[in-house]
Amino acid sequence: MSSPFSRILITGAHGFLGHHVLPQLRAAFPEAELVAVGRKDYELLDPGVPARMFRDIQPDAVVHMAAKSGGILDNRQRPADYFYNNLAMNTVVLHEAYKAGVKKLVTFMGGCSYPATAVSPIGEDQMWNGLPQIDSAGYSVAKKMLLMQSWAYRKQYGFNSVVLVPGNVYGEWDNFNLTQAHVIAALLRKYQEAKERGQAEIKAFGTGRPTRDFVYAGDVAATVPWFLAHYDSSDPVNISSGTRISIKELAEAIRNVTGFPGRIAWDTTQPDGQMDKIFDVTRLHSLGLTCSTPLEAGLRRTLAWFVQARDKGEVKL
Ligand SMILES: NC(=O)c1ccc[n+]([C@@H]2O[C@H](COP(=O)([O-])OP(=O)(O)OC[C@H]3O[C@@H](n4cnc5c(N)ncnc54)[C@H](OP(=O)(O)O)[C@@H]3O)[C@@H](O)[C@H]2O)c1
After folding, report:
1. How far is the CA of 76 from the centre of ligand 1 (A)?
2. Which position among 7, 10, 140, 187 has the lowest Cβ density within 10 Å, counted as fewest Cβ atoms?
3. Are 263 and 220 in contact (CB under 8 A)?
């Protein structure tokens, strides 16, 4: 792809998705200069810093991934922090990008911003039908404002921004801290450690019947150059596999991948949570894009990364 941009600024570049997005941008736009920044370069909550970042770097395109993200326990305890950090950062970054004359900005919200009552497969048209699940609403409602800001700045100023909605993302560089991790990272770690300890049994919560879809981070990242170059709309796009899998099937796949030889004991007295949560990927497919890494292949890559990074002391446990 020949680059329509000469300098692309990437915020949150050293986070989970950032590690996947950077090589995709490098491959897609070899002649563009990539400027990857993290919090120690520019603290985006400090007044004046986002404006300084745009003055210093003068990008013509931005991939904005800086965000305060965390696990459900932390979200429950500190909803104000999740709300303020994300709303403040996003509002100012998009505003300063518009003021700096940026030609295109791509950013992310999350599938958790959909209403708690959304019906699967969850299409983009359900976004405004109700309040998201309350446990992470501080985060998810703040992130949702990106959609309104993208629409408003496009309408009033012609500012070209795009908001992508990844589903349940997993992959290398994910967060494996058990109080913060999402389900795949948490299970990979639990099963791997159970195997290493020679444990006979692993407890699993609920019946295992609820269904979800999962998307490999490399697949999400691979769509970013295309959106940067070709998609000029504030209509959100779900980025997911759209493949339905039960929690029981996921647990079996993880047992397979880790080689844990023991038993999985399902504690059916524990609640199952939402029974079915699948994202509708019709819009993504209509753009000629898919997220098609098979779950088992993605799990193997993620596990291999986790084991070697953990053994080198590079994972926050
Ligand atoms: N991971 C998922 O499952 C998922 C799903 C859907 C959507 N998303 C969205 O995708 C984007 C990237 O997510 P991720 O999983 O890569 O998140 P992540 O690993 O937490 O990375 C976010 C990055 O943002 C930076 N950051 C946080 N606060 C900042 C601040 N005040 N100033 C400057 N930088 C700051 C952090 O930099 P430091 O490392 O320097 O602190 C961090 O590297 C986010 O918008 C997220 O909401 C993620």
Report:
1. 18
2. 7
3. no
